[in-house]
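REVIEWER CHECKLIST
Item 1: Sequence provided? yes
Item 2: Single chain? yes
Item 3: Sequence as submitted:
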Amino acid sequence: MFVLILGLLLFLGAHSVRIFADDWRKVRIAQMGEKPWKGAYSVVSIIGFALIIWGYGLARREPVMIWSPPAWASHLAGILTLVAFILLPAAYVPGNHFKALVKHPMTISVALWAFAHLLANGTLNAVILFGAFLVWALADVAAARRRDRVEGIVYPGGTLSRDVIVVVVGVVAWVVFAFFLHEWLIGVKPMA
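Item 4: Structure as written out by the authors:
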């Protein structure tokens, strides 16, 4: 469990600097330059992510059950992750209604993904992993919305054609991941 927690601290810690120490972050970027800052940020994030994967795999070998999820939980998780997969490309496709509505679709996507996995998994390592991501995502959404208010950021409306792109990309990615890649990469068949 130590490796998993260390990975989460590094990965989510790097991703939390803007939430909790934005002024410090701005000073570091000014001192180091944007490219070296992004390089250091990326290295720490990649190391943290690798440790999360390794640590979660290690923890799965001897799972500690906290609760037994009900049968319906995996079905609800499937629906929630579908929505999460639709929101993820909404962060990158300009001019869509999803971004105009939720403002920060990637972070909302992470929150939905984490919540869905908390519902469908009852092991201690799952609670630590997905709980940490859920708490981080909620904190990030709150901080981002605060920044938007302070900076007066308004997200423009979208077009139907951009919404269709977002939905198609999200649904196709979800189908490929849920029905093919999840079992191959994670070892769990979510749609069983």
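Item 5: Key structural point noted by reviewer: The mean pLDDT is 94.
Item 6: Recommendation: ____
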